[in-house]
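Re: that backbone. Tokens:
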């Protein structure tokens, strides 16, 4: 099976981390930015790095981007550069373009260009923070719709020492447990201190016992999460 191939244009905080995560997952990545210093951060960490102005049609054509599974335009600070780069990618014939959105106007213009895959990292981060602030015990969240989310919840004290069969989450709270992130403390090799290691339990069974410091990964509605903690 061939490796997936992606190009990430714009290596600010979002683009840089996106490129690194794709490489961690085994993808081939071309990282592109006009700032030499940003390029230096990724040398020897991705398949190919290019320092160039992506509003230059001839330079863009030489990258072979039509062969990519997707090109992600992650340019953040240059509104015009993002739009022009996107237009040139369309002209070249790139089959899948994903854009980072920086403002409502930016979003409207991209939609007029028939770009449908839009990413708003700031909005996603804000949404996660809102859930952490308003929902007791929540340490992480991924919103699937206005109603349903995947929530990372610190195990309530009343759950500790009980099995999933005892808790009966689906019938009592209308929540589905996806998995458990178990925090284990292990002594460091070269120090006297301890370090935390996260272990994913996998698919829990009815006999799985909830332990102290467990993080429960739940699928459900916010109102049911609130109901769990308000009882």
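Recovered sequence:
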């Amino acid at each position: 099976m061939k490796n997936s191939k992606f190009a990430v244009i714009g290596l600010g905080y979002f683009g840089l981390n996106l490129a690194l995560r794709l490489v961690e997952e085994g993808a081939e990545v071309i990282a592109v930015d006009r700032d030499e210093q940003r390029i230096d951060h990724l040398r020897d960490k991705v398949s190919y790095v290019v320092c160039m102005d992506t509003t230059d049609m001839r330079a863009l054509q030489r990258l072979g981007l039509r062969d990519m599974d997707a090109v992600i335009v992650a340019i953040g600070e240059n509104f015009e550069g993002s739009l022009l780069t996107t237009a040139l990618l369309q002209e070249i014939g790139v089959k899948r373009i994903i854009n980072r959105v920086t403002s409502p106007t930016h979003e409207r213009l991209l939609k007029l260009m028939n770009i449908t895959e839009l990413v708003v990292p700031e909005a996603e981060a804000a949404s996660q923070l809102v859930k952490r602030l308003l929902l007791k015990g929540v340490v992480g969240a991924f919103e699937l719709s206005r109603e349903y989310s995947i929530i990372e919840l610190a195990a309530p004290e009343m759950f500790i020492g009980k099995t999933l069969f005892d808790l009966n989450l689906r019938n009592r709270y209308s929540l589905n447990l996806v998995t458990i992130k178990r925090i284990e403390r292990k002594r460091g090799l070269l120090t006297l201190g301890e370090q935390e290691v996260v272990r994913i339990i996998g698919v829990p069974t009815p006999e799985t016992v909830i332990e102290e410091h467990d993080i429960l990964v739940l699928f459900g509605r916010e109102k049911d999460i609130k109901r769990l903690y308000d009882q």
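The chain has two domains: 5-119, 124-230. The chain has a mean pLDDT of 86.
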